[in-house]
Amino acid sequence: MSTVEERLKALGLTVPQAAAPVANYVPFVIQGNTIYISGQVSNDASGGIKGKLGGGLSLEQGQAAAQLCGLSLLGQLKAALGDLSRVKRVVKLNGFVNVAPDFDPIPSVINACSDLMVAAFEDAGRHARSAVGVANLPLGFAVEVDGVFEIE
Questions:
Q1: Which range has the worst mean pLDDT, 19-23, 64-68, 69-73, 112-116?
Q2: What is the torsion angle, in degrees rounded to the nearest 10, for the CA atoms of residue 97, residue 101, residue 104 and residue 106?
Q3: In sequence order, what are the beta bridge partners of 130?
Q4: Distances in Å between the alpha carbon of 133 and those of 23, 40, 55?
Q5: Torsion angle of alpha carbons 48, 53, 55, 60, nearest 10°?
Q6: Which residues contact 5 (CB under 8 A, 6 or more apart)?
Q7: What's the pLDDT band for 138 if we cut at 50, 70, 90?
Q8: E strands along the chain, which residues?
Q9: N or C: which end of the chain has fewer CB within 10 A?
Q10: Do 150 and 89 form a contact (C-beta atoms < 8 A)?
């Protein structure tokens, strides 16, 4: 059986360093065998993906943004736990998409983050989820996702 990071590497993906909070909050809270990861925006070393879906950004760009959010969630998990093998299950993801008024394939955007979790954690990556379109997101990013994970 391969590890989470080996499975991601086979897909050409790497877990990034955890980003520092940009406001007055902590990046994660561990309560019992549950870890809550604060919202991760579609940011990366190149500046990430900003803008509105249906207002300049395509569905494919939104999916790339959601995948960035998923990778950042994994980065926060790794920073918090030291090892992604401590994740027993992805419990819930909450996805927010910065949308123009007529853009409605919001679930298709957040699917990219969900698909990443299943690729990383296999069956334990299947989760409950919300996918919501919003008028704006922090710093103009295209997507934000937070998560709840069961840990050992």
A1: 19-23
A2: 0
A3: 94
A4: 23, 16, 13
A5: 80
A6: 14, 15, 84
A7: very high
A8: 28-31, 34-41, 87-98, 128-134, 143-151
A9: N
A10: yes
The H or E element that residue 63 is part of is: helix 59-81
**Of 71, 110, 86, which Cα lies nearest the Cα of 34?**
86
- Name residue, tokens 């990430």: 48
Spatial strand order in the sheet of 143-151: 28-31, 34-41, 143-151, 87-98, 128-134
Q: Using one digit for the tens of pLDDT, what is the confidence trace for 36-90?
A: 999 999 999 999 999 999 999 999 999 999 999 999 999 999 999 999 999 999 9
Maximum alpha-carbon separation in the chain: 45
